[in-house]
Amino acid sequence: MLWSDPENEPPEEMRDMQAMLRRAGIVLALAMVLAMFAVGLH
């Protein structure tokens, strides 16, 4: 990495997509925990 290298900032869409995927992952993990809990109760 040289000082003269341009910043490799990802484009706006890419960052939005990553944020969305991260949120989806969190929701999925929570759903999984709830499902396990529900199965454990039966």
Automatic annotation (TrEMBL):
The chain crosses the membrane at residues 20-41. InterPro entries: MmpB-like. The keyword Transmembrane helix applies. It comes from the Bacteria. Keywords: Membrane, Transmembrane, Transmembrane helix. This is Uncharacterized protein. It comes from Streptomyces lavendofoliae.
